[in-house]
Amino acid sequence: MYPIKPTIDFEPTDSYQKAKKDVITALFSVKSLPEEQQRRLAEELFGAANVAAVINMIRNGFK
C-alpha cells in the first residue's frame, strides 16, 4: 500500500486555474524524483530526442 499524507487542499472552479494548479503539482512531483527516474519519465512522455530539453525545463522551472 502506498503511504499517504492527509492535506487540506482547494479545487478551483475555473478550468484555467485548475489546469494551472495541476501543472504546478505535476512539476513538484517530478522534481521530487531521483534524476534517473526524471530522465526515464521524460523519455516515456516526450521521447529520447527531447529529454535534455524537458529535464532542463523541469530543473529551471520553465524559465
- Percent helix range: 55-70%
> How far from one another are the termini?
37 Å
Parts with pLDDT < 50 across at least 5 consecutive residues: none
Oligomer: single chain
Strands, count: 0
Give a description of the structure.
By secondary structure, this protein is an all-alpha fold. Helix 2 packs across helix 3. The protein starts with 14 loop residues before the first helix and ends with a helix.
Descriptive key words:
3 helices, 63 residues, single chain, mainly alpha
Briefly characterize the structure.
By secondary structure, the protein is mostly helical. It contains three helices and no strands.
Annotate the secondary structure layout.
Blueprint: H1 15-31, H2 35-46, H3 51-60
Helix pairs in contact: 2-3
